[in-house]
């Protein structure tokens, strides 16, 4: 089976004042294309650090990371920026929408950076906003949307350019159970319908219950890796 993400001997240390913190230690991980993975564990277990390393947002102290056949740990900053733009989608707990742009303009933003034709990106944005249940709200700015609606805009933005991998860090943390369920169903639809790989970091049981594969981390190490369906 084709692997979307491969980590070998991955480690990350941080220095806080005079203290060395081992955030990750000896992580070996294979994520096949089309997998739906949940990273769980207590605060400080290494979930967000692992996501940041896979997404090229931070550099490992040791080990190797391959994403879509490319060695992320060997890339320059310019190469990392291109990889993130062309191959990855990110969904953050804080939404990270641009407040002065409408929902449609936020969704179009990545495609604009990719150099996509205006007509094409407008059509794609309209279609995916409809898919996420925001038809008729395209021209509202983030402050005019609820938290659940903003997070759906963030998911639409992450998905619209057709990434091979979406990384989501605590995507339901600011949502009530109903909106959290709707968001996860949307992610599963994108995963099953479009074959997009998802890696989601969370401590919430609702998210874990939706995962096809549950990986538990503790003190920077993988302590279990289980298929759930």
Q: Would you give an account of this structure?
A:
The mean pLDDT is 90. With 229 residues, the chain is α/β, with parallel strands linked by helices. The chain has one domain (35-48, 80-227): 3-Layer(aba) Sandwich (Rossmann fold). The strands form two sheets. Strands 6-7-8-3-9-10 form a six-stranded mixed beta sheet, with helices on both faces. A four-stranded antiparallel beta sheet has the order 2-1-4-5, with helices on one face. The radius of gyration is 17 Å and the shape is globular. The protein is built from seven helices and ten strands. Strand 1 and strand 2 form a beta hairpin. It has helices at residues 47-54, 77-87, 103-113, 118-131, 147-159, 177-194, 205-210, and strands at 3-16, 19-32, 36-40, 62-67, 70-71, 88-91, 165-169, 197-202, 213-218, 221-227.
Short summary:
The protein is α/β, with parallel strands linked by helices and 229 residues long.
Layout: helices, strands, pairs:
Elements (H helix, E strand, L loop, with lengths): L2 E14 L2 E14 L3 E5 L6 H8 L7 E6 L2 E2 L5 H11 E4 L11 H11 L4 H14 L15 H13 L5 E5 L7 H18 L2 E6 L2 H6 L2 E6 L2 E7 L2
Parallel strand pairs: 3-8, 3-9, 6-7, 7-8
Antiparallel strand pairs: 1-2, 1-4, 4-5, 9-10
